[in-house]
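Progress note, sequence design subtask.
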């Protein structure tokens, strides 16, 4: 019973940490995707890849935020040293970034074509695609980070 409560608490904290990291990632994506096209003409469409730098930079901001929130609030330290734990975290995050970029491209190119009006805010196709990619990759991230990195 105690393990079930601990696991539920961990999932709740993972969701909170993931939500905060997603806010950082989405907010920085909005900023990067708004301002980078003024400096790099190919940012909106670089050989068929939409917003590549915005995605990479914003995902990096989200990963760094998530790492610190994960070690402070979500997971207990595993059997790995801090440096090895960080290296594994970054390795998993790199693969997750590639998956997120791929899902973003699919969503942006083929699925989300119209704005969604939320009354108080209108979501553009690139923002909807970014949010959907984050949600999809988050499920995989929790499982891998828990089992491989933090041995929980």
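Output:
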């Amino acid at each position: 019973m105690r393990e079930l409560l601990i696991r539920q608490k961990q999932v709740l904290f993972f969701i909170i940490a993931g939500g905060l990291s997603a806010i950082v990632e989405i907010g920085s994506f909005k900023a990067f995707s708004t301002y980078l096209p003024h400096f790099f003409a190919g940012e909106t469409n670089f050989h068929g890849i939409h917003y590549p730098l915005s995605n990479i930079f914003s995902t990096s901001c989200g990963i760094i935020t998530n790492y610190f929130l994960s070690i402070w609030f979500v997971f207990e330290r595993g059997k790995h040293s801090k440096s090895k734990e960080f290296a594994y975290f970054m390795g998993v995050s790199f693969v997750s970034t590639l998956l997120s970029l791929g899902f973003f491209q699919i969503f942006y190119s083929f699925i989300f074509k119209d704005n969604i009006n939320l009354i108080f805010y209108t979501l553009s196709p690139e923002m909807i695609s970014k949010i959907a990619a984050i949600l999809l990759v988050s499920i995989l991230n929790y499982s891998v980070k828990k089992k491989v990195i933090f041995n929980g």
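The longest strand covers residues 116-117. Work on this subtask will continue into the next period as scheduled.
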